[in-house]
Design a protein that fits this description.
The complex is a heterodimer. By secondary structure, chain A is α+β, with helices and mostly antiparallel strands. Chain A has 5 domains: 135 residues; 197 residues, no CATH class; 93 residues, Alpha Horseshoe (Serine Threonine Protein Phosphatase 5, Tetratricopeptide repeat), CATH 1.25.40; 89 residues, Phosphorylase Kinase, domain 1, CATH 3.30.200; 171 residues, Transferase(Phosphotransferase), domain 1. Chain A has 31 helices and 25 strands. In chain A, the strands form 7 sheets. In chain A, strands 1, 2, 3, 4, 5, 13 and 14 form a 7-stranded mixed beta sheet that branches. A 6-stranded antiparallel beta sheet of chain A has the order 17-18-19-20-22-21, with helices on one face. In chain A, strand 9 and strand 10 form a beta hairpin. Chain A starts with a helix and ends with a helix. Chain B is α+β, with helices and mostly antiparallel strands. In chain B, 36% of the residues lie in helices and 26% in strands. Chain B contains 8 helices and 10 strands. Chains A and B meet through helix 16, helix 17 and helix 28 of A and strand 3, helix 1, helix 2 and helix 3 of B.
Chain lengths: 824, 268
C-alpha cells in the first residue's frame, strides 16, 4: 500500500505541474499552441458549408474591366457614373472601397482652367461672341474634366455612398478632445469601449469634399492574427477618444437604417435589437462563406446585368484585379480580396451568425483542463494500461469532436488544443514514467531476495523444517528488526523442539547485531541446560548409532549382510552387501514396495522378478552378472557383481572425451553384450552412459538389464518425473513395444555423445526434446567431428534411423562394421 | 463478481494415503489444488508446501511484502504475475526442501491456482492438474497438461485413444520441485455471471469424463454438494488415484451486498 501511495503522489505532482503549464500557455496564449489552435480553427471553419444569401452584390474592378475600360487609375468619373447607375437601379447602399485621400490631379483640367481664367481676366474677350462661345465650351470641358466635382456631386446627390477611411494603427496620443472635422465626428461614436480596443494614431480620410458628403465613413483596416491569417474584424477602432466603426459595419448600419448613434457597447455590440458578440478588443470572428453575387464593373456599365440584381442591395465597388488592392490570407483561402472580408462581415452582422467565443467557453476549457489534469494524476496510474489508453483516446476524441462539432455546426469556437495537448503529453509522460518506475521497482524486487528468503524461511518454519528456515533467515540482514523478530521466533521453536544447541545458534546469530529482547539471557540459560541435557538427548542419539555399528547381527537382506549404503538409484537404495557363505562382496539393488502403487504392486513385482530372472540368466563378459534375486521385508532385491569403476557419464563432456578408437572399441563391446542379450530375449530398455561401466581393469560392463524401466513403466504411477529422455528411441517415446533395435538406437545416441560431447537430440523442454527425437535429424557428425572416418559417420546414421527397419537389426552387424572401421 | 466455493479431497479407493492438497480463500478469490508425488509420503509434503507457500505469498502481499519471483511478464496483469510468483516461490521451497532431505528426494507436485480479481481471472499452473470453465452449458478446459502424452497428442504423435492406453500416461514434463526454476503457464480471462470454475487433480479427470463433470456441476448450485458428487463418481469408476476438486460458482454481487458491506464498514 505504501508503495502505491508514493507512486500516486509523484503522479499527482506531474499532473499538477502539467496542468499548471497548460494553464500558463492557455492564459498567455503561447504562440506555438495558438498556432495549432488556429490551424484547428481553420480546418473546422472550412468544414462549415455556408452559402450566403445576404443582400450583397459586389461590383469588381477586375482585369477584364480594366482591359476594356482603360488603365487604372480610372478617372473618378467612372466611379461616379457607376454610383449614379446603381442609384438608378435602386441599390440601397453603395460602398466604394477605393481610397480617395487626395484630390485628383488632372493636367488637362488645369490647362483648361488656365485658359478660362485668361479669357475671363480680359474683359475684351468676353465681349467677343466667338470667344464667349469658346468660353462656354471650355466651361463645359472644365465641368467634364473635373472628376472630383463629378464624383462629389454624385456622392452628395445619391446619398447612399459609404466611403472608407484607413487608420495607421498604434497607441494614440490622446490629445484630449481634439478638434476633429465634423464629418469624422458624425462617423464616430463617443462610446467608451474596452481599453483593449484597437487604437490608431493617425487617420487617412477621403478628401473633405467627398467625406463631408458621404453617407457614412468606415475604416477598412484588417488585423491578421499572429500567423498572418485574417480571422476577425475589428468592428471598432479607437482614435483620439472616439470609436470608428468598420466599413462593413457602416454598410450594414445604413442598410438597416440605423445610425452610428444606435451603437451600444456592453457585453457585445448592440445595434437596435441586433447583438453582435465581440471580443474584448471589439473584434468579431468572421464566419466565412464564399458565394456572393459578383459582377465585373464593365458588364454593369454596359448594362449587361439585370437591374433587379441591385435593387435594395448593398453594393460594394471594389478592386479585385491582380495587383490592385491587397489580398488577405483567410481560413478559406490565401488570396481573398478585401471585398471578401467586407462582404462576410456584412453578412455575419445581418444574419447574426459570426463565429463566437461564447461566454462559457473559458469556464468550459478551464474545467476540461482541470478534468484532464485530474484524469492524468488520479485515474491513469490506477487503471490498467489498456483501459487507460482507451479511456484517454476516447476522451481526446470526444473533446476534439465536440469542439469541431460546435464550431462547424453552431459557430461556437472552443479552444480544444490546450486540454488536448495536456492529455496527450500527460498521458505519454505518466505512462512512460510509470513504465520506467515500475520496471525499476520490479528489478529491485527481483534482485532483492531478502523478502523471498523471509517468505521461504517462514514457510519452512511452518512445515517444521526449522534447520532450513534458519538457513533462509540467515541470508537476510540481521540488522533488520523484522528479521530479528523472525529469528527470535525460530529460536523459540527450536527450544520447543528441545533442539537447544540450534536455539543457541539462532540466539547467538541475533546477538551479533546487538541487543535484542532477552536473547543473550536465553542463550546463556540454554547453554547450561544443554550441557546437562547432553546425556539425555544427545546420549540417546549416540546410543542408537552405536547400536547399529556394534550389533553382532548385521542387518541382512535375504542371505546377504548389508555393509553400507552405496547410493540411491532410480528404484531404490543400492547397498554394499556381503554373501556370508562365500564371503563375496556384492552390490544389492533394492526396490522399495512402498514407492509402488498398491494396485500395481503385484504387477510390478511380477515384472521385476521376470526381468531380473531373465537378466540373471545372462552370462556375458560385458554384462554385469546377477547372482540372485529375492524378496525380504517389503523390499525386492537383486544381488549382483560389485564393480570397481565408473560409468561413462563423465566421458560425455567436451574436454574429457575418449579417443575415437577407444569409443569404437567400447561401443563394440556394448554391442556384443546387446547382441547376446537380445538373442536371449532380453531387452535392456535403458541404454545410457550411466548404465555402462568401465572398470579399472578396462573391462566394459552393461548394467541394469531390463529392470531399469520396470518402475517407470508401471501403468498408473503418478508423478514420476521423466528424467531427460535423451536416449529414448522414437518408438519408446510413442509408447510402443520395444525390442533390441530400440537398444541399438539408444546405443547410437551414446556413441554420438561419446564422440562429440553433445547429445544428438536436444530441446529446451522435455516436450521439444521428445518431438525432436521422433522427427528431427541430428547435426551430422561430419560437421561436429570432421576427423571421423566416413564409415563411422554412416554407422551412427544407421543407428539413429527413425525407422527400426532401417537400423542394424542385430548387435553383431554393428560389431562387424565397427571392427572394420577400427582396423581401417 | 463474487464466488461461492467449495472444495473436497479424497484419497480414492486404491491409494492408502492422500498426496493431494487444496486451499480456498474465498475473500481473496484464491483457489489452489496440488497433487504431490514422490516416495516416503513426500508427495504430501510437496503439495502441502506448495499450498502453504502460495497462501503465505498472498498473505505477504497483504502486509505489503511483495516479491517478484522469476521474470515479470509484461503481457500479463499484475495479479497474474503475483500468482505466477507464488508458484515459482513454491517451486523453490519444494526444490530446496527436497534437496536438503534425502527422504524427500524426487518429491514434487503439480499445482493449479486461480486468482479472481473483480471479474478478471488469473490462472497459473504446472503439471496435469486442471482448471475447467463451465459457461453457458458447455465445459472448457483452460489448462494444458504438462504431461508426455498430452504433448504427444498435441503434436499429433499419438491419437487420443492411444494416449489413453499409453504407458506414459502419468508422466509429467513439468512439476514443482524438480529443478531450481520451473516454467509456469499463465492465462487470463474475464468471467461472466453464472460461470463455474472447476479445479481438479488428475484423479478426477482420468476417472470421470468431462460430460459427467459438467452435468454434476450444473445440477446443483451448492459447491460442496457438487464436489461430493464428483468424488463419488470418481470412486465409483475405480478411484485409482487421489481426487481433489474445487468448484466455484460465480455470482454477480447485488447492490444489496454493497449496501451491507457499507453498513459493515460504517459500524467498524
Amino acid at each position: 500500500m505504501k508503495r502505491l501511495a508514493k507512486l500516486n503522489i509523484s503522479d499527482i505532482i506531474i499532473g499538477v505541474i502539467l496542468t499548471l503549464l497548460t494553464f500558463g500557455g492557455f492564459y498567455f496564449e503561447w504562440t506555438p499552441t495558438e498556432f495549432l489552435e488556429y490551424k484547428m480553427y481553420d480546418a473546422a471553419t472550412n468544414l462549415r458549408d455556408r452559402v450566403s444569401n445576404a443582400p450583397i452584390v459586389v461590383v469588381g474592378i477586375d482585369d477584364d474591366s480594366i482591359a476594356s475600360m482603360g488603365r487604372w487609375p480610372w478617372p473618378r468619373g467612372y466611379v461616379a457614373h457607376m454610383i449614379e447607375l446603381l442609384h438608378r437601379y435602386e441599390a440601397k447602399v453603395v460602398g466604394v472601397n477605393i481610397i480617395y485621400s487626395e484630390a485628383d490631379f488632372n493636367q488637362g483640367l488645369m490647362e483648361v482652367r488656365d485658359i478660362i481664367k485668361n479669357i475671363e481676366d480680359d474683359p475684351g474677350f468676353m465681349k467677343n461672341r466667338q470667344v464667349s462661345g469658346i468660353h462656354g465650351i471650355l466651361k463645359e470641358a472644365e465641368k467634364k474634366l473635373d472628376n472630383d466635382a463629378i464624383l462629389s456631386s454624385s456622392i452628395s446627390e445619391t446619398k447612399r455612398v459609404v466611403l472608407p477611411v484607413v487608420f495607421i494603427l498604434g497607441s494614440s496620443i490622446d490629445a484630449g478632445a481634439a478638434q476633429v472635422p465634423e464629418y469624422l465626428a458624425l462617423n464616430s461614436s463617443p462610446v467608451s469601449a474596452s481599453e483593449k480596443t484597437v487604437s490608431a494614431r493617425e487617420i487617412i480620410p477621403p478628401i473633405p469634399d467627398f467625406a463631408a458628403k458621404a453617407l457614412a465613413l468606415g475604416h477598412i483596416n484588417v488585423i491578421p492574427d499572429s500567423d498572418g491569417t485574417v480571422r476577425s474584424e475589428p468592428l471598432l477602432i479607437r482614435y483620439q477618444g472616439r470609436m470608428y466603426p468598420s466599413f462593413g459595419l457602416q454598410l450594414t448600419l445604413k442598410y438597416l437604417n440605423y445610425d452610428i448613434k444606435d451603437i451600444n457597447v456592453s457585453k457585445g455590440l448592440k445595434i437596435g435589437d441586433i447583438s453582435i458578440p465581440i471580443s474584448e478588443s471589439a473584434r468579431m470572428l468572421i464566419s466565412y462563406s464564399k458565394s456572393f453575387p459578383y459582377f465585373p464593373f464593365y458588364e454593369v456599365v454596359s448594362n449587361k446585368v439585370p437591374t433587379e440584381a441591385f435593387k435594395n442591395k448593398i453594393v460594394i465597388i471594389s478592386q479585385s484585379a491582380i495587383g490592385l488592392g491587397s489580398m488577405q490570407v483567410t481560413p478559406i483561402g490565401p488570396n481573398v480580396p478585401s471585398w471578401g472580408i467586407i462582404a462576410n462581415v456584412v453578412d455575419n452582422i445581418i444574419h447574426r451568425n459570426p463565429v463566437v467565443r461564447p461566454e462559457w467557453a473559458f469556464p468550459l476549457e478551464t474545467g476540461v483542463i482541470v478534468f484532464f489534469g485530474l484524469f492524468l494524476a488520479l485515474a491513469i496510474p490506477r487503471l490498467k494500461a489498456k483501459i487507460s489508453s482507451v479511456a484517454s483516446v476516447v476522451l481526446l476524441l470526444v473533446w476534439i469532436g465536440a469542439g469541431m462539432y460546435l464550431l462547424v455546426n453552431h459557430g461556437y469556437w472552443i479552444k480544444v488544443i490546450y486540454p488536448s495537448l495536456l492529455l496527450l503529453f500527460g498521458y505519454t509522460i505518466i505512462v512512460t514514467k510509470g513504465y520506467f518506475f515500475t520496471e525499476r521497482a520490479k528489478e529491485r524486487i527481483e534482485a532483492d531476495s531478502v523478502e523471498t528468503n523471509k517468505m521461504l524461511g517462514l514457510s519452512f518454519q511452518g512445515q517444521g523444517m526449522l534447520d532450513m528456515a534458519f538457513e533462509k533467515f540467515r541470508k537476510c540482514p540481521i540488522e533488520d528488526e523484522s528479521v530479528k523478530e523472525l529469528l527470535y521466533n525460530l529460536g523459540l521453536d527450536f527450544e520447543r523442539k528441545r533442539m537447544f544447541n540450534k536455539a543457541v545458534a539462532v540466539y547467538e546469530h541475533i546477538a551479533q547485531a546487538g541487543v535484542f529482547k532477552d536473547v543473550e539471557g536465553r542463550a546463556k540459560k540454554l547453554k547450561v541446560a544443554g550441557e546437562t541435557m547432553i546425556f539425555g538427548l544427545g546420549g540417546a542419539k549416540k546410543d542408537a548409532t552405536v547400536l547399529m555399528d556394534s550389533a553382532e547381527t548385521k542387518p541382512t537382506l535375504g542371505r546377504y549382510e548389508i555393509v553400507k549404503e552405496l547410493g540411491r538409484g532410480a528404484m531404490g537404495t543400492v547397498y554394499l552387501g556381503k554373501d556370508p557363505k562365500i564371503n563375496r562382496e556384492v552390490a544389492i539393488k533394492t526396490l522399495r514396495y512402498e514407492d509402488v502403487d498398491e494396485e500395481q504392486l503385484a504387477e510390478v513385482k511380477k515384472r521385476f522378478f521376470r526381468e531380473a530372472e531373465a537378466a540373471g540368466k545372462l552370462s556375458h563378459p560385458n554384462i554385469v552378472t546377477i547372482y540372485d534375486v529375492g524378496e525380504d521385508y517389503d523390499l525386492a532385491y537383486m544381488a549382483m557383481e560389485l564393480l570397481d569403476g565408473s560409468d561413462l557419464a563423465k566421458y560425455c563432456n567436451k574436454g574429457n572425451l575418449l579417443s575415437s578408437t577407444e569409443v569404437m572399441k567400447l561401443i563394440s563391446s556394448v554391442a556384443h553384450a546387446l547382441d547376446y542379450a537380445h538373442s536371449n530375449g532380453v531387452v535392456h530398455r535403458d541404454i545410457k552412459p550411466a548404465n555402462i561401466m568401465i572398470l579399472k581393469s578396462g573391462e566394459v560392463k552393461v548394467t541394469d538389464f531390463g529392470i531399469a524401466r520396470v518402475m517407470t513403466s508401471s501403468k498408473t504411477q503418478t508423478g514420476v518425473i521423466l528424467g531427460t529422455p535423451s536416449y529414448m528411441s522414437p518408438e519408446q517415446i510413442a509408447g510402443q513395444k520395444v525390442d533390441g533395435r530400440s537398444d541399438l538406437f539408444s546405443l547410437g545416441v551414446v556413441f554420438y555423445e561419446l564422440l562429440t560431447g553433445e547429445k544428438p537430440f536436444q530441446g529446451e523442454s522435455i516436450a521439444t526434446l521428445m518431438f525432436n527425437i521422433t522427427t528431427a535429424s541430428p547435426v551430422s557428425l561430419r560437421e561436429l567431428a570432421p576427423e571421423m572416418p566416413e564409415r563411422c559417420v554412416e554407422i551412427i546414421e544407421k543407428l539413429l534411423a527413425k525407422d527400426r527397419e532401417a537400423r542394424y537389426q542385430h548387435g553383431k552387424e554393428l560389431v562387424r562394421d565397427l571392427s572394420e572401421c577400427i582396423n581401417a | 463478481m463474487e464466488i461461492i466455493v467449495g472444495g473436497k479431497t479424497d484419497k480414492g479407493i486404491v491409494r492408502t494415503n492422500n498426496e493431494d492438497n487444496f486451499y480456498i480463500d474465498e475473500k481473496r478469490g484464491l483457489l489452489v489444488v496440488a497433487d504431490g508425488m514422490g516416495g516416503h509420503a513426500s508427495g504430501e509434503i510437496a503439495s502441502k508446501i506448495a499450498i502453504d507457500i502460495i497462501r503465505d505469498y498472498f498473505g505477504g502481499i497483504k502486509e505489503g511484502r511483495e516479491v517478484q519471483v522469476g521474470k515479470y511478464r509484461e503481457e500479463y496483469s499484475e495479479e497474474t504475475n503475483h500468482i505466477g510468483s507464488a508458484v515459482q516461490l513454491a517451486n523453490k521451497a519444494i526444490y530446496e526442501a527436497a534437496s536438503s532431505n534425502p527422504q524427500w528426494k524426487g518429491m514434487g507436485t503439480t499445482v493449479a491456482a486461480v486468482l479472481l480479481n473483480g471479474n478478471r481471472l488469473s490462472i497459473a499452473h504446472v503439471g496435469d492438474s486442471r482448471v475447467y470453465l463451465v459457461r453457458a452449458g458447455g465445459i472448457e478446459r483452460l489448462t494444458d497438461d504438462h504431461s508426455v502424452v498430452y504433448e504427444q497428442v498435441r503434436r499429433e504423435l499419438l491419437t487420443k485413444d492411444e494416449a489413453e492406453k499409453s504407458e506414459m500416461r502419468n508422466i509429467l514434463t513439468r512439476a514443482l520441485g524438480v529443478s531450481h526454476d520451473v516454467e509456469v503457464d499463465f492465462d487470463e480471462l474475464t468471467l461472466a455471471r453464472n460461470d463455474i470454475l472447476i479445479l481438479c487433480t488428475d484423479g478426477l479427470n482420468t476417472m470421470v469424463s468431462d460430460d459427467e463433470i459438467l452435468s454434476a456441476v450444473i445440477s446443483t448450485a451448492n459447491p460442496v454438494e457438487a464436489c461430493g458428487r464428483l468424488i463419488d463418481a470418481a470412486n465409483k469408476n475405480g478411484g485409482k488415484d487421489n481426487v481433489t476438486v474445487i468448484i466455484g460458482y460465480i455470482v454477480q454481487k447485488s447492490w444489496l451486498s454493497y449496501f451491507l458491506k457499507l453498513k459493515e464498514w460504517l459500524r467498524r
